[in-house]
Design a protein that fits this description.
The structure is a single chain. This protein is α+β, with helices and mostly antiparallel strands and 134 residues long. Strands 4-3-2-1-5 form a five-stranded mixed β-sheet. Strand 1 and strand 2 form a beta hairpin. The longest helix is centred in the last third of the chain and has 16 residues.
Length: 134
């Protein structure tokens, strides 16, 4: 039996309210669950935005429960999980190298080659210019 930590939708039309639940992966979204771990209110009306029982979340993660993607983002914001790996593709139709992305800001990180200095970069630029002029 695969156990997942996922969201179950409650609330009215256009006013969602989610409970963070532990459930069998084969059960429906709003169906039978094993335990309620907390809630997430994406539209707080003066109330709390999120509430989690951290001890029980850590327990379920330790016994092998897999969080869904939205729950993984919630647990990252709460400080329970490390940031999920994020990468950005290059330009459309350009090189297909992958660049790391900062999970907090969403900006592409500039990762330089290890061991390269400004003098080496300048020498490489001069070599490219000489090859283009020749």
């Amino acid at each position: 039996m695969v156990v997942r930590i996922r969201l179950s939708r409650f609330g009215c039309k256009n006013k969602p309210f989610y409970r963070v639940m532990v459930a069998n992966s084969r059960s429906p979204r709003d169906g039978k669950h094993l335990e309620v771990l907390g809630y997430d209110n994406p539209l707080p009306d003066g109330g709390k935005r999120m509430g989690l029982n951290f001890e029980r979340v850590k327990y379920w993660l330790s016994v092998g429960a897999q969080p869904s993607e939205p729950v993984q983002r919630i647990l990252f914001r709460a400080g329970v999980l490390p940031p999920p790996p994020m990468v950005a593709m290059g330009c459309k139709g350009g090189p297909h190298d992958m660049c790391p992305v900062d999970p907090m800001t969403g900006r592409v990180l500039n990762v330089e080659k290890p061991g390269t200095t400004n003098q080496q970069k300048a020498a490489e630029d001069e070599a490219v210019e000489e090859a283009n002029s020749a």
